[in-house]
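The protein record passed on for reference:
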Amino acid sequence: MSWDYLAVLLISFIMLMFFMYMFWRESAVRSRERPAEMYTVVKCGDGVERKRKYQEGDYVGKPVEDCAGGVVVGVFKEVAQQQQ
């Protein structure tokens, strides 16, 4: 076995270990994150805005039956803040 082959093998092994560590670290951080909640903002005919949980098929401009003349004016995600 030549020294060049051994050096390439050692460098490859070190890089593999580094990438495995980075993958493990990223997955550990993601497991601690809380999933975001999806919400829909509905504007009623009288001008009142209401926030409700997102329902499949909601989109901006969609007429809804939540209130008289209700229209979806926004869809957004809300992430809970972590307490320290």
In short: The chain has a mean pLDDT of 87. Strands lie at 37-43, 49-53, 63-64, 70-78.
